[in-house]
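Section 3.1: Structural characterization of target chains.
Under the original work plan, the team committed to producing a structural model for every single-chain target entering the pipeline before any wet-lab resources were allocated. The record below documents one such target. The sequence was received from the expression subgroup and is listed exactly as submitted; it comprises 447 residues.
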Amino acid sequence: AAIRMYEAIIAAGTPVYDTYQRLGLAYLHTGELPKALTVTQRATQQAPLDGAVHYQLAKIYRQMGRTREAEEELETCVRLKQSDQFSIQKLIELSEAVRTRQLNQIAKLRGDLLSESGNDPEILTWLGVLLGHAGFYGDALQPLQSAVEIQPDSFEACYDLGLTLEKLGKEQEAEAPLRKALDLRPESVEVNILLGVLYANQGRTQDAIERLRKARQSRPDNFTLLALLGQQYLLGWYLDEAIPTLCQAVQLRPGDAGTRYLLIEAYQNNRQYGKALQVATETASLFPREARSQYEIGHQLGNLGHYQEMRLHFEEAIRLDPSFAAAYVGRGDSQLRSGDDEEALESYEKARRLDRENLDAVRGVGRSLIRLRRYQLAVVDLKESVAAHPDDAELYLQLSQVQSQLGNSQEAAQANATFEKLQALGMEKQNSQKPRRFASADRSGVR
């Protein structure tokens, strides 16, 4: 009963000082150790100077068999008792000043602590944590850097320094202290998640997946973690892992449209068009005013060969959002298949006006002009298109066809040679975008 009440308080967004600590203690009593660990860690972020919270964390670690972390927390309890009480009092005053946003008082207390306790890594770390927790990342950076220089094997200092650098947009610099923190505590959920996000932002898909998989062991039902992991699986074409991961995320939060669209894409890439259509239809029922949901139904109907039906959904998407370029492309595709070449050209041109970088629209204009036999106009348009998109094979194929129709055999041959070269490169890219299974390279052996 206590757990239900504390969880409700936290869900309402109004937890008082010791709510996380008390909820962690209740989880500990019921043997729910992963949950106890998570909320008690939140409690230490709120009250880093409370020895009772660190002692509770030590008990949890000990019951989980994580002896080293338990000993570290017990040592923190001892240090808190032995620490300079003047600095502790200053930190407590800083905590209150941060809470009430007293900027002048924050600056004064920060200066006092740096000048009077600048050689104490514990005080410096707590100073950085308090400032960072309140969003004063620039002010937190110096004390945390000093703490790491003095005590390079401090997990808290390394983690908080990495977090602060990441918040300041210095992701390259953040990796080193975060990797050090990971070496010190390989099981840390917070470090694994933060590194996973950092790697995802850098396009390092394999590294991001490794870290997010590790974090998932401790938080198997965390929606945000599952959605990000599923997205990274999808980017790496690990579809056997992406689909169940995204399905679980959708089950946890059915009303999240973004995750549903990722799941549709995963099914589509895996050529499971029927399931992709099913999810798209469910999404449209949940979000009837969202153009993207109608577009996805039309797209999957097209994959299944239902070309007449798909046009209706593209039309509906355009009605809901007249600026949706992809929907005009979809409508153009259906019109071209039905022989409505003039209408298709209008749709593609509209899409291109809305989004000059939309290659499907650019290609559609070329195809329509060829179908309409407007070769003089097509050659001018295609020359402009290949200049804007010099790496697209299909545009060179279209240009070759048009030049051939105009009797320009040399220009046609040149365009065709470029097409064949780009086509070969495109085949290599397609081969890299095929479903595969994820094989972990993590030294911890996670699979």
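The two ends are 37 Å apart (CA to CA).
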